[in-house]
């Protein structure tokens, strides 16, 4: 029994050391993550929660998240009969990520991650990150970060953006834009180091 | 009198040089964004699916940047017919369509980083690409030079304005048909007041996203 514990301990230690040694690619890193468009025009938070959870092997639906958040039971109803998207306007409200409810552990930061930390999260830990930005006093937006690329000295971040409703888009912004968005918007939150509870 | 003419000429020359330098810098940023995008599309095909053909980007040309401005939501709540322009932020960035003929292949965004210098902030945005392609030809005349992109926060919608007309997909409207901006502002105001009643207190308590 003692031997087993020692072996498991050594293996765990080895894995931790291995993880610490992981050197992310300087050029490109990506996580295979399916784009999930938001299912109402206010559900970016549900779409991003769904994408992050999926990356950790957990299946959640946006309307279940909405039912939970708004204390309702009808959020999976279709707005237009015969079309699964969009969902009912009765639940069409802004929100915030529901990672805890989805069975996930995570860290979060009001300041942007350093380039190195962002690369490690994607390349070494294969995490999909959440990134919220906006202007104080009005509703902001959240997207999933699924990759990075460096080209001609410029660092870019690849996003799975649940906007627009029922469409979504894969887009790419500079790392500088992630750290300090243009105009009145600021970086609000990054969710990282995500794993199953 | 002679001196005044000299000063005015020198001032005009300086202004002209500054404008040219700014134009050149803007052009450099656009070229940099386009070159980066082509390289990314060619190198990362296995990792990402942007749905854009690198050859189409190579053949495209960047046209004049479209000013991007945001509507002031507090002013929208109190809007009383002063005109849409009166409640907009200054230009925050320029959205640059890369076009092949009349087709927008994708868009870049560039922003001023001070003293007339520009930097690339975004190299792919399918929303602008799709919506710009849907706009009628009259809104895109002169290589999009008359167009402005306006984001309305909280109502989470984009309006394109050109030559006294507005184009939006808000509330089932069609991007293909120009509307009277004042009619649209009345619609926005009603919905903004409704939004404020529903979520105003929640937003004061904490951040929300949509």
Cα end-to-end separation of chain B: 62 Å
Beta content of chain B comes to: 15-25%
Task: List low-confidence stretches of chain A.
Answer: none
From the alpha carbons, calculate the radius of gyration of chain B and give it in angstroms: 20 Å
Number of strands of chain B: 8
**Inertia-based shape of chain A:** globular
Quick one: overall form of chain B?
Answer: globular
Number of H- or I-type helical stretches of chain A: 5
Q: What topology emerges from the helices and strands here?
A:
The complex is a heterodimer of chains A (197) and B (210).
Chain A: H1 2-21, E1 28-30, H2 44-55, H3 62-70, E2 104-109, H4 115-124, E3 129-134, E4 141-151, E5 154-161, E6 169-174, H5 175-179, E7 186-196
Antiparallel strand pairs in A: 1-4, 2-7, 3-4, 3-7, 4-5, 5-6
Helix pairs in contact in A: 2-3
Chain B: H1 2-43, H2 54-59, E1 61-62, E2 66-70, H3 73-77, E3 93-100, E4 103-114, E5 117-124, H4 126-134, H5 141-144, E6 147-152, E7 157-162, E8 165-168, H6 181-205
Parallel strand pairs in B: 2-6
Antiparallel strand pairs in B: 1-3, 2-3, 3-4, 4-5, 6-7, 7-8
Description:
The complex is a heterodimer of chains A (197) and B (210). With 197 residues, chain A is an alpha+beta fold. Chain A is built from 5 helices and 7 strands. Chain A has helices spanning 2-21, 44-55, 62-70, 115-124, 175-179, and strands at 28-30, 104-109, 129-134, 141-151, 154-161, 169-174, 186-196. In chain A, strands 1, 2, 3, 4, 5, 6 and 7 form a 7-stranded antiparallel β-sheet that branches. In chain A, helix 2 (44-55) crosses helix 3. Chain A starts with a helix and ends with a strand. With 210 residues, chain B is of the alpha+beta class. Chain B is built from 6 helices and 8 strands, in the order ααββαβββααβββα. Chain B has helices at 2-43, 54-59, 73-77, 126-134, 141-144, 181-205, and strands spanning 61-62, 66-70, 93-100, 103-114, 117-124, 147-152, 157-162, 165-168. In chain B, strands 1, 2, 3, 4, 5, 6, 7 and 8 form an 8-stranded mixed β-sheet that branches. Chain B starts with a helix and ends in a 5-residue tail after the last helix. Strand 6 of chain A pairs antiparallel with strand 5 of chain B, so a sheet runs across the interface.
